[in-house]
Amino acid sequence: MIRWLLAALFIPAAFAAPVTIRDDLGRTVTLAAPAKRIVTLAPFLTELAFAMGAGHRVVGVSAYSDYPAEAKSLPVVSSALGVSLEQVAALKPDLVLAWRDSFRVEDIEPLERVGAAVYVAHGRRLDDVPGLLRMLGTFTGLDVAGVTAQFRSRLSDLRARYAARPKVDVFLEIWHNPLTTISGGHFMNDALEMCGGRNVFKDLPGVAPTVSWEEVYARDPSVIIGTGSASNETEFRANWKERGTLSAVRAGRLEWINPDTLQRPTTRTPEGIAVLCERLERRR
Fold first, then answer.
1. Do the first three CATH levels of 2-143 and 165-281 match, i.e. the same topology?
2. Fold held by 165-281
3. Which top CATH class is 2-143?
């Protein structure tokens, strides 16, 4: 009895009552106790869970959850085809983290019926990363102050370093066929602006619009950057070889960036932005 009382005295106050957070759909999400079994339905959510120290609590992931290496061995419960409710139920999670852009809201209720709280995140801007880290910290009872501060500090350093650099017009290619870019509503646009780049398709609606070759020729960007649009730099350059009348192609201002640290809003994203800034700097 005395041992139980002593243990109770050292239970953090946050654990003594249910935790309630509003998700990005405006829903109230409540956990009665810190999450011990977590399912992540997007690679960037998997990575964030590991980055803030909750990787050992992740029991199921989405396809392409390949970082860190430990995530590769976890059961895959979702893909572009949707979520396997049966697999999720078998894992008995108490928390499911979903990405709004790849998740059907009609799956919320079935997931809740297996006993899981479901948090749906947008994850479209760089500023979403600290918020998601705080959410994970609240739901797990883990301290995320250090990792959040480091993320903010690295972005602040990049902003300060490139804030006064001359602006350069950029086409950011994330897929080649169909030709796909990002609009102003995406964190990669935030990254471009941080580096002193002007996204020539910032004005388009949506998040990842497809564009025509005619539109690219009309806007004639000074630099073309590929990330995720080819498997390597050689392939990327070959894709653009026939477009020699574009200013960027004619002048050889083509840059290919490995997408691993640039296409997901995670704690590694500042690494990708630093590379992006360096590539733009040498093309000014």
1. yes
2. Rossmann fold (3.40.50)
3. alpha beta
Q: Which two tokens stand for residue 196?
A: 């002193």
CA 255 – CA 271 distance, rounded (Å): 16
**How does pLDDT run across 110-167, given as a tens digit for each residue?**
999 999 999 999 988 998 999 999 999 999 999 999 999 999 999 999 999 999 999 9
Nearest to 275 by CA among 260, 257, 263: 257
128-144 in b/e burial notation, b at 16+ Cβ within 10 A?
A: bbbebbebbbbbbbbeb
pLDDT value of residue 123: 85
Q: CA 214, CA 218: separation in Å to the nearest integer?
A: 6
Whole-number Å distance between alpha carbons of 37 and 166? 48
Per DSSP, the residues of 120-166 read: EE---STTHHHHHHHHHHHHHT---HHHHHHHHHHHHHHHHHHTTSP
The pLDDT score that the predictor gives to residue 124 is 87
d(CA 148, CA 151): 5
Q: Residue 37, SS3?
A: coil
54-86 as b/e, with b when 16 or more CB fall inside 10 Å? bbebbbbbbebbebeeebeebeebbeeeebeee
